[in-house]
């Protein structure tokens, strides 16, 4: 039985997984290396612990592949309920690390239930959307689908862990793939654009720009085209009110560290001296990571030869900023290789998702793609300075047992579902 699963499984995806995990471990070893380190298996070191986590992940793969594929669909709701209870339990039993109460202390390692919640939410969303009674043309069903995503995010934000909460919203793309009207996505992007424009230029300039756009629209439109004036007026008022709320939220709800990160990202601070000061304080991680990657050049400085890596210039270099080690020690060649591997992985997963005959498998596959893609995009974006700093690990790379274990679980559940597609064809 297990032998048949191994023959049917997508080995290209597994080879990419092995490559990413291996390269990740090598760079964890390099970023945490010390002369006192005597053994690769020393559990007192970060690289030794990561090897242990890799071993646990390999055992997890065997267990995932050994179970029947329909097990994951049948118990998706149970997994979701359990993961929500684990998130609630953090408010009572959680351990606080770096200001966030996001972990359970299990003695031998810390478990982060938000990682399990990503897997469970992807399963629950696929289960709900694939139900024969679900019709995304109905507002009620749209609301229920969004609530499945919103509940874990709302439980994670107060920890506080806004980075992990943001990941759940990537699953909205699964709903769009299955028929949610695109105007919802348009509204979402419009709100983000209004938020950024308001911070950069202010509400007054936004109103002036909106007025000029309306004038241009009426000037170029055809005479036969009648404009619904009332919705246009209501929409314009809503834009202005939202813009006014942006300043209130930014100045009264955001913490100073959040305001500083947006100031750095959007260059809101006009004083060069103050901007440089922000770069060296709140933006210190990004500043140092940019310098580390830049210093690597085309070929890099070589394994264990990164001076900034050895000097601990970049905080969290084995977790959220692991990509800087690749940039410094392996240069453009190394970073390009990693990006190519991830790109092949995403394209392969899209191909696998599209060939599924079972709706649940296809929807879950797109959930896997959404979660991995937002982690990849935001992590590398913040490391090279094009996105604000958000505490999100690089999948299969960053140090951490919970992250590696549940990314592995997320991926291999889908690969198991894919083997079931082949079984159904026989």
Automatic annotation (TrEMBL):
Its membrane topology: Multi-pass membrane protein
Entry GO MF terms: lipid-linked peptidoglycan transporter activity
Transmembrane segments: none
Superkingdom of this protein's organism: Bacteria
Keywords: Cell shape, Membrane, Transmembrane, Transmembrane helix
Keyword Transmembrane helix: yes
Coiled coil: none
A cellular-component GO term for this protein: plasma membrane
InterPro entries in the record: FtsW/RodA
GO BP term, example: cell division
Protein's UniProt keywords contain Flavoprotein: no
Subcellular location per the Swiss-Prot or TrEMBL entry: Membrane
Leader peptide range in chain numbering: none
UniProt-listed NCBIfam families: RodA_shape (NF037961)
Matches recorded under PANTHER family: CELL CYCLE PROTEIN, PEPTIDOGLYCAN GLYCOSYLTRANSFERASE MRDB
Name the UniProt record assigns to this protein: Rod shape-determining protein RodA
């Amino acid at each position: 039985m297990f032998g048949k699963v191994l023959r049917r499984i997508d080995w290209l995806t597994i080879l990419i997984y092995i490559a990413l995990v291996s390269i990740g471990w090598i760079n964890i070893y390099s970023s945490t290396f010390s002369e006192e380190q005597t053994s690769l298996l020393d559990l007192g070191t970060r690289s030794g612990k990561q090897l242990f986590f890799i071993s646990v992940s390999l055992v997890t793969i065997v267990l995932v592949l050994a179970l029947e594929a329909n097990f994951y669909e049948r118990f998706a709701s149970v997994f979701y309920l359990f993961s929500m209870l684990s998130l609630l339990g953090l408010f009572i039993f959680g351990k606080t690390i770096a200001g966030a109460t996001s972990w359970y202390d299990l003695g031998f390692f810390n478990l982060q239930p938000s990682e399990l919640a990503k897997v469970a939410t992807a399963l629950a969303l696929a289960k709900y959307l694939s139900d024969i009674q679900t019709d995304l043309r109905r507002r009620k069903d749209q609301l229920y689908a969004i609530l499945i995503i919103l509940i874990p995010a709302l439980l994670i934000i107060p920890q506080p862990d806004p980075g992990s909460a943001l990941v759940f919203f990537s699953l909205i793309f699964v709903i769009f793939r299955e028929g949610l009207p695109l105007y919802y996505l348009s509204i979402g992007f419009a709100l983000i654009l209004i938020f950024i424009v308001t911070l950069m230029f202010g509400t007054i300039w936004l109103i002036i720009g909106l007025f000029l756009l309306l004038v241009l629209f009426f000037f170029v439109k055809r005479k036969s085209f009648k404009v619904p004036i009332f919705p246009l007026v209501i929409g314009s008022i809503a834009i202005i009110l939202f813009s006014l709320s942006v300043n209130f939220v930014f100045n009264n709800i955001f913490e100073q560290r959040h305001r500083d990160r947006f100031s750095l990202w959007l260059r809101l601070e006009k004083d060069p001296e103050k901007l440089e000061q922000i770069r060296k304080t709140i933006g210190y991680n990004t500043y140092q990571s940019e310098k580390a990657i830049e210093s690597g050049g085309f070929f890099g400085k070589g394994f264990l030869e990164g001076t900034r890596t050895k000097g601990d210039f970049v905080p969290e270099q084995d977790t959220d900023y692991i990509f800087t080690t690749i940039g410094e020690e392996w240069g453009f060649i190394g970073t390009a290789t990693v990006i190519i591997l991830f790109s092949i992985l995403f394209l392969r997963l899209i191909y696998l998702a599209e060939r599924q005959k079972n709706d649940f498998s296809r929807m879950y596959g797109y959930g896997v793609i959404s979660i991995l893609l937002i982690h990849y995009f935001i992590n590398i974006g913040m490391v090279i300075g094009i996105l604000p700093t958000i505490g999100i690990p690089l999948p299969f790379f960053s140090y951490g047992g919970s992250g590696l274990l549940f990314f592995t679980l997320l991926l291999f559940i889908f690969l198991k579902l894919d083997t079931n597609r082949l079984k159904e064809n026989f």
